[in-house]
Design goal:
Blueprint (H helix, E strand, L loop, with lengths): L1 E7 L4 H10 L6 E7 L6 E5 L2 E5 L2 E10 L1 H15 L8 E6 L17
Antiparallel strand pairs: 1-5, 1-6, 2-5, 3-4
Length: 112
């Protein structure tokens, strides 16, 4: 099993959700986060004053998938979140040792 975490632009969430649903991933956790990478923020003008926005708003999408779904899920996220511009985000993939559904006590793939 894999734990996939993707940092994406907020306006891409619906496209990512739909792309994941098409490949059979129906559950996800989404968190509003702020951060920066190579963008290093940007300068904005507010009421005549210029200020630097260091941390940009992003969304963190987290999903747990079976090994057989992992490549399809990664590809779906990558294609649907891509704009071709700097700041599109990143996808992190980690090995998932165990999953337990609290309600039924199902384990691993059955719990997904």
């Amino acid at each position: 099993m894999k734990w996939i975490t993707a940092i994406i632009k907020p306006f891409k969430l619906d496209e990512v959700r739909e792309a994941l649903a098409e490949v059979g991933v129906h559950g996800m956790t989404v968190t509003e986060v702020k951060g920066f990478g190579r963008q290093h923020g940007h300068t904005e003008l507010y009421r005549g004053a210029e200020y630097v926005v260091d941390f940009l708003p992003k969304l963190k999408v987290e999903i747990a998938v079976d090994d057989s779904q992992a490549d399809h899920a990664i590809e779906a996220i990558g294609q649907s979140a891509r704009t071709g511009k700097i700041g599109d985000g990143k996808i992190f993939v980690a090995e998932l040792q165990q999953v337990i559904r609290i309600r039924t006590q199902e384990i691993d793939a059955d719990a997904l």
